[in-house]
Amino acid sequence: MIFGIRGNTAKAELAMIVHRLVKGLDLAGINYICEAEIAAQIRRQFSHKLRSQQVASEKELVKKCDFMISIGGDGTFLATAKLVGNRDIPIIGVNLGKLGFLAETSTREVVSFVKKVVNGDYLIDERTILEAVSINGHNTRKVVHGMNEIVINQNEIVKTIEISVYFNNQLVNSYHADGMIISTPTGSTGYSLSAGGPIVFPKTEVFILSPLSPHTLTARPVILPDNGVFKVKVNSRVPINVVSDGNDIIKLNAPAIIELKKAPYKIKIAKALESNYFKVLTGKLLWGEDKRKKSRY
Prior knowledge:
The protein is an alpha+beta fold. Helices cover 22% and strands 38% of the residues. It contains seven helices and 17 strands. It has a six-stranded antiparallel sheet, covered by helices on one side. It has a six-stranded antiparallel sheet with strand order 13-12-11-8-15-16, with no helix packed on it. The longest helix is centred in the N-terminal third of the chain and has 15 residues, at 14-28. It is globular, with a radius of gyration of 21 Å.
């Protein structure tokens, strides 16, 4: 069993954490491969040179590993999921970010959790992926995948655009809005939540349709089954973006049609046996916290 290690290299503490991690894995006799840029940071900061077989580029990393350790926030986890794609490699999310709905494991626990994984003491949580296919006037197909969401908006000046949304060829609604978010249950605590969308349990087989700043008070988020096909028609003649998880972007000239549906694969998350979604949710969103208990003044 080989563990791939990648992370957010913009985090100042990453090299220290990975250095501590690889020392722990070495002591436990657990095989790993570290992403090359992180290995270079460890060498510069700690004069610790990993062996050549313990270092690989990101593309090679996913070809050689059985598990991926993603160190950073949820954004880093989403980038790791995009890197893994349909390879069926479970991801261990280690949290260096602010919230950490996906990256649940703390930096203090990662070595002990990897040991549990080696012993089979873990569970796999599968998450649905959203696939978006754009077709422009020349019938050129472009495809992106999102674990959290696909956002369709204008890519130049800020103004409302005319969007019609169909589900299984039935018109759901036409909107004048800044854009549209189509979210998975995993992404319900992300951008969709900021746009007024509901929190949805990750195992629920639905997608969430949330208009961005709609120019009518009657437009509200809609939850629809994930076994159908969305078609989003942008009727305004403006340049638009189709954005996947905040990083992959397709640029189109409207009018345009974007077709969205459930991807033919899922992302696997390796979690502790005692993992509890509601405990994570209440802890991250501070539900029920009474600040009066912390201070009388």
